[in-house]
Structure formats: C-alpha cells, structure tokens
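Run log // design_07
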C-alpha cells in the first residue's frame, strides 16, 4: 500500500509554494499591518485565481470537490508563508460546513458555495461559546454557533468589536448578534454533529499551519546563523547551534505522520478522527513552540527585535497554539480515548 501523496497533490503544493514565496513576503505582511483591515483584496483575488478557495467546494457549485487530505499540504504552505488572508477559515472550515446543510436550506447553501468558488465571498466561523471570531470584518457570511444551533448571517447583520492579538496579522472580533429562526440553518443533533466536524477540520488546519511555521522558523534561524560570524566563523558551524536546530528538525519530522494520518481520517470521516486530530495538533504545536524558542536563541539578542522577520512567524505560532483547542483540551481528548472515556467534541474551544 502506498501512503505517499500523489504526484498531482505534490505538484499543486509546489505551485502554491512558489506563489507564496513571490507574493506573500515578509515585506508584504508588514505592509498589511499598516492597513486598518489588515487584509488585501488584491491578494485574495490572486488566491481565487489559483482556485484555492474553491478546492473543497463541491463540483456542482463550481468547485474542485477535494477534501481535507488534499488541502493539508496547502495549509502547511500557508503557515510557512505566514499567509494573512482567511483562506483556511473559508475553504477548509466554512465550505464543508455549508456543504453539509440539508436540502431545506439548499438555496442558501448553493448560493454561498458558488459565491466562494467564484471568489465573491469569504466566510468567518464562530463556534458555540467562542469569545472571538477571526476575520469577521472581511467575511461576507458568518457561520455562528448558539448552543447546538448553526446560524448564517451577513456581515451587516452583526456588530463587531476589534480585539488585539499577540500576532498583528490576526484580526479578531467580538461578534454581537441576535439568534432567530430566520438565521438558523441547523439545530439539535444535526447542529451538534456539524460543529463537531467543523472543530476537527479547523484544528487540523491549525496544526498544518503550525507545522509550516516551525519549518519557516528553522529556515530563518539557519540562514541567520550562516550569515552571522564570531571568531571568524559562521555561528551555525558551532555544535551547540547545530543541536538547537537539529532538535526542532526531529520534532517536525515526527509531527508529519500524525498530521497526515489525521488529514486522512478527517477526509474519510473515520471514527478515530478526533483523537488523531488532537495528536496532530499537539505534535505540530510542540514543534512550532520549540522552533520559536530555539530560533530566538540562535538569533541571540536580535531574535527579540522588530526588525528581523522571525517574530512574524513566532507570534503566529504562539497565537495558533491556543486556537481551536489549547494543549490542555487536546491532551484531555487523547486521555479519554486511551482510557475508554467519551471524547470531548471540543466545539467552541476556539481561542
């Protein structure tokens, strides 16, 4: 049995990586920080031209009909680049949630899926009890939780209050809104199932981004330590520095297996998906946090400064470590699975 990604998946990943390398640069990220929205319609349009928001949209609504396993490599590249746009919330989290709505809401479902596929809409997700919603200010449709209900609201139907994040690229908002029968698109057992599945996809996408961030921080540290010289030699030639980076590289390699296994389980709706997602989130978060710690040390005092690019990715890793379930929640889910308990769904534990 071949457990590798297909040639098509790897080639698509390479093309996305090439695009991000050229278009999502640290300089562009810093420029976006100066904008009130922190987002760029031009960049979103370029993502649409690549077909990325349409990846998981069903073919009947103009998409490619792919799944989480196809998307996980793209999510890694988004993390590596430090992509600011809400690609994952729209394509990996929001689209499958919309696509799972029943035929009673077919008109709304098909309208918004087509809009996403055509690049006319972005989505924001606020799970039940979530204190904050990412990118609510640029979303055309917000999918919000109220108890076991799923509600769909346009942006002009809610009130937003900005909340600062440790990562300037994260745009977080408190959303004030009023649930109503007109906005409710799922409830009861169906609503609980939809939010549980949404949590798994969101946690998986977050884990993939963390893995990409870990790799980027290692690359930044390696580049810096070859440029920086002491005693006439690059500091990267010293054994202590080599060990710092080697330890992270090992963590990254060990995290890939759990991440890809979890992606397969989510894509095929396997019953063990929740525990595999938690394993992936923990492994990728540990790799990213170790990368941040060791990369700061490899940079020396420069690692703490605003001028170097390291903090762009380090702060994102710190923020995503808590997104869609912190380490405590995911450790609890693994413990419950190992010792025969009922796995906590985790819906609402988004920040």
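design_07 sequence
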């Amino acid at each position: 049995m071949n457990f590798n990604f297909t040639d098509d998946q790897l080639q698509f990943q390479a093309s996305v990586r090439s695009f991000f390398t050229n278009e999502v640069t640290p300089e562009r990220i810093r420029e976006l920080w100066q904008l009130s929205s922190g987002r760029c319609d031009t960049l979103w349009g370029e993502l649409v031209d690549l077909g990325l928001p349409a990846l998981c949209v069903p073919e009947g609504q103009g998409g490619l009909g792919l799944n989480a396993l196809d998307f996980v490599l793209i999510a890694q590249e988004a993390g590596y680049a430090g992509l600011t746009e809400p690609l994952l919330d729209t394509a990996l989290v929001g689209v499958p949630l919309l696509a799972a709505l029943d035929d009673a809401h077919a008109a709304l479902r098909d309208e918004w899926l087509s809009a996403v596929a055509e690049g006319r809409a972005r989505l924001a997700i606020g799970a039940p009890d979530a204190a904050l919603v990412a990118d609510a200010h640029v979303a055309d449709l917000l999918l919000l939780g109220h108890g076991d209900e799923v509600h769909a609201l346009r942006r002009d139907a809610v009130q937003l209050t900005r909340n600062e994040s440790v990562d300037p690229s994260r745009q977080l908002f408190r959303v004030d809104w009023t649930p109503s029968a007109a906005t409710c698109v799922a409830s009861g057992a169906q609503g609980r199932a939809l939010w549980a599945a949404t949590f798994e996809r969101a946690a998986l996408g977050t884990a993939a981004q963390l893995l990409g961030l870990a790799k980027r921080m290692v690359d930044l540290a390696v580049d810096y330590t070859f440029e920086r010289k002491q005693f006439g030699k690059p500091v990267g030639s010293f054994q202590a520095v080599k060990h710092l980076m080697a330890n992270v590289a090992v963590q990254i390699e060990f995290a890939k297996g759990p991440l890809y296994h979890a992606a397969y389980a989510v894509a095929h709706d396997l019953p063990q998906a929740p525990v595999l997602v938690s394993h992936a989130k923990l492994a990728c978060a540990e790799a990213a946090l170790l990368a941040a710690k060791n990369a700061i040390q490899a940079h020396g005092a420069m690692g703490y400064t605003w001028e170097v690019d390291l903090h762009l990715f380090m702060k994102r890793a710190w923020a995503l470590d808590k997104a869609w379930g912190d380490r405590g929640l995911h450790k609890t889910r693994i413990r419950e699975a190992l010792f025969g308990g009922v796995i906590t769904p985790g819906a609402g534990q988004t920040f």
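The longest helix spans residues 188-227.
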